[in-house]
Amino acid sequence: MPEETTFKGGCHCGAVRFEITTDLGTVMNCNCSHCAMRGVLWNFAPETRFALTQGEDALQDYQFNKKVIHHLFCRTCGVESFARGTMPDGTPTVAVNVRCLDGIDLESLTLTPIDGRSK
Q1: Domains detected in the chain
Q2: Band (115; pLDDT cuts 50, 70, 90)
Q3: I need a surface site. Which of 44, 74, 84, 105 has the fewest CB within 10 A?
């Protein structure tokens, strides 16, 4: 079972930086139109385990479909490094784009396919 670790990450240009404490045991590969086009791989954690350390003013919000997830991307480079939403029980949650975490070997991760296209 993967261990919880604190990761640092951010966007391509470095304007947005964050830290998150999570385990990478579940990395979701969603096939909805948005995720597939952007190539994101998601890992979810409670918002209490996430800290935006730089770039609040560099973020642009994008919502689509049911408009319940705030997809946040850098105004400068366009990279979506994380999103904010709530779990069905109301818990505030952050989804980080695992591709934006520093030093991650993507080949070592097991991806969980999610059929977002059909929802």
Answers
A1: 5-108 (2.170.150.70)
A2: confident
A3: 105
